[in-house]
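Table S2 (text version). Query chain:
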Amino acid sequence: MSEDGDITSKSILNLSDNEVLEEIEVQIDDASSSLMHMLHTSSVVAKQVDELAAKCSANAQFLKAWRDLLKGGHRDVTTPSAAEND
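Corresponding structure-token output:
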């Protein structure tokens, strides 16, 4: 067991039943508060990830459109025109 666990165990052994219950309630409140903070933070990060995904998708569509335009222009330039064949 870790040193912190040993200290907690020893301090609980010296407490009355009511004091042990109060200590457990405090620890549960602390854990609940920490979990609520983590939930809030996770929600904020999830929203930011969704926004980033939307931006990446828009950028990908933009780049694909440019690629298609450039490919089309390249074909037009490299394809001999009818005037050159005469």
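Notes on Table S2: The chain has a mean pLDDT of 83. The radius of gyration is 33 Å.
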